[in-house]
Amino acid sequence: MRDISLIIRRVWKSAFMFTALSVLIVSASQAQDLVEGRKLFKDKCASCHQLDRNSTGPALTPKLTELDEAFSIKWIRNWKSLVDAGDPTAIEAAKFSPAEMTTFPTLTDDQIKNIIAYAKAGEPKKEAVAGAAVAGAGSDEVSSFSIAGIALIILISIAVLVVLGRAVKMLERLILKKQGVEVVEEENLSFAAGTRKLFKNKKFVFFFILCLIISLGSFGWKGMWNTGVHTGYQPVQPIKFSHELHAGVNKIDCQYCHSGAFKSKNASIPSVNVCMNCHKSVQATEKYNGEISPEIQKIYTAIGYDPNTLTYDKSKEKPVEWVRVHNLPDFAYFNHSQHVVVGEEAIRKERGLKPNEPVCFACHGPVDTMEEIYQYSPLTMKWCINCHKDAEISGKDNAFYAKVIEAHEKIKKGEKITPALLGGLECGKCHY
Predict the structure, then answer these.
(1) Residue 261, burial from CB neighbour count under 10 angstroms (0-12, 13-18, 19+)
(2) What does pTM read for this prediction?
(3) Where does residue 85 rank: exposed (0-12), middle (13-18), buried (19+ CB within 10 A)?
(4) Is 64 in contact with 120 (CB distance < 8 Å)?
């Protein structure tokens, strides 16, 4: 009986270890999502904060490492309430900059923890971000870490089943011995023979197939989530145009080149004559020993321009074959002017942009720091919907929303409402 008790204790110990490991795995799967934290940081914080150096606000990596997480969560959500409550740490922190920090009452604790985790970890390599951001385009998507956790749980489950199976057999043999029944001891089987015998067990085969279906389903689900998401996409362009130099160093307004953004559906690719407005004179010869910059020469070649004679030869013209970076599905309608003009104020407020930053940064990211342009945001439907849910619109000094509010007031009064009153005369309603 003592042997039976020992075996039972071993069975319970194995079951306990399996339960504990499962809990640890589930807890680990809830660890902070650095990918979402990076995205939230870029959307909400990057306009005022840098990770490793002071800007409008303090450097976040050392500061958030120093501060208690519970305080940091309250500070990020609503620092004003802490200051008003007389919190000495908050009052001291508020003295860093005369500019008031934006409050984020809509952020959940988990979202703020993700931002803190990203700030403490620092910026990963660009290649890692490009690959990881696809998997983390939304907080409810299947991450690689979750799939690894599922696989680990399956392996542990198989191991526990094998241990429990052996324990049950040992119990059966001991019971038979107590009853006086002669038990023939099984000879030790080779690994291959043991595996074949294991797969003859119907219960094990059923469990194995079930785990296989769950694993394949998880990978398939993850693959479907990532279909069409191209965050970090950075194709090689025919001319190495530096947005960092033009939009950052030289402070050229985005709409000087992309003139369609404020008046049409498409932002438009600038024609070469826009480049020639400057580069007819600016040739960067000082950097190339008196020779014209090779990239500027490509512009001249495309337009058939001879810088020596200042003449154009139309027979030598060859369009620049730019590679599109930001692509939306054909069934998705997006109007740049609707966002750049009508929704500018709401987008600026929701994204926390500085007054001197163009509204373009809300979707395209900090373009003025990109040597080569890449897709900064996921541009998924969920990403757009979240912005539409959070952005706060106002009819004040905004003719479009003023008309919408006017229409609602007429509906309340029971007056006649026409499609024209609701924007039915706008070209974009019919002409894509």
Answers:
(1) buried
(2) 0.55
(3) exposed
(4) yes
